[in-house]
Amino acid sequence: MKSEKNEVKMELRGETEVVFTRYFSAPRELVFDCHTKPELMKRWLIGPEGMVLETCEQNLKVGGKYLYLYMDTKGNKSGVYGTFKEVVVPEKLANTENYIMDMSTFDPNAPEDPAATFESRTFTTEGDKTLMTHLCRYGSAEVCKMMVESGAAEGMAECYLELDNLLLKIT
């Protein structure tokens, strides 16, 4: 079977960490922008089938907060929120990630879950491509196992095909 350079590769590290890597055929500045500018994020960051990124609010600085809400065709919402821990344009983005499963109980002013997922994305130029290394450190081995078994890599791969299409349009 032929290996595609732009496929999502997943590596487990210990019981709570997963590292995803993926190449993009675009300059890292543009790939970084697509991960940080709401007007670009809304064009490729799809949620579960039938959902669109309806709300994309963020304060892109260390200590800044973000809120991404997905909505389905019936108006049901879910999403993620967190705090940026590191922002080095166009090189690195790190944040916490908390999941919102029930909007009726979501309080944007509530303290973050101490077991929130930690994410870090590093963007590296390799020739005419950008390598994105995406580390996810989950709050427990159980959550990590659930994310891996739920098809996180496949979901990312689907999103990144959307990003590839957007990058082709804007480069």
TrEMBL record:
Question: What sections of the protein cross the membrane?
Answer: none
Top-level taxon of the source organism = Bacteria
* InterPro entries listed in its UniProt record: ASHA1/2-like_C (IPR013538), START-like_dom_sf (IPR023393)
Residues forming the Activator of Hsp90 ATPase homologue 1/2-like C-terminal domain are 26-167
- Give the family this protein belongs to, as stated in its UniProt record: Belongs to the AHA1 family.
Report the protein name in the record: Activator of Hsp90 ATPase homologue 1/2-like C-terminal domain-containing protein
Q: The organism's lineage?
A: Bacteria, Pseudomonadati, Spirochaetota, Spirochaetia, Leptospirales
